[in-house]
Amino acid sequence: MGHSWGARNLTGAELEGAHFDKLIALSGAAMPPGWVPDPHTAYSSYTYPDILLTAEANGVVGENYPMKEPAFEKHVYEPPGGYRWRQFYSIDNHTLIATTDPRNEKPLEDIRGEILGR
To answer: What is the distance, to the nearest Å, from the Cα of residue 73 to the centroid of all Cα atoms in its chain?
Structure first.
C-alpha cells in the first residue's frame, strides 16, 4: 500500500521486477513511464477528490495514474466538505485518505475488507 508518491514507488518497483499479490494506492501519483499492470496483481485505488486528482485529470502531473488506469479498481469518497469546488483542490483531502481520522472511517473499513478478503 502506498500513499501519493508511495504508490509510484511501488509501481516503479514492479518495473524493477518486484511482484505484489495486491497493490493499493491511496491518492496515488502517476506510475512511472513504461509501467504496465501485472496480470497476477490485484490493483485498487482509494481517494477523495483532491488537488492531485484534479491535476491528474487535467494532464498537469502525468497521464498514467491509478484513477485513469483500467487495471485499478476505483473507490472515490465524498470529502468531509461535500462536493463543493474547493474540495477538488484540497491538500487536506489528499492526506485524509491515509489517516485514521474518524472522517476517514468508511474508506478504512473498505480497505480493511479488501485486505482481509471480505
So the answer is: 10
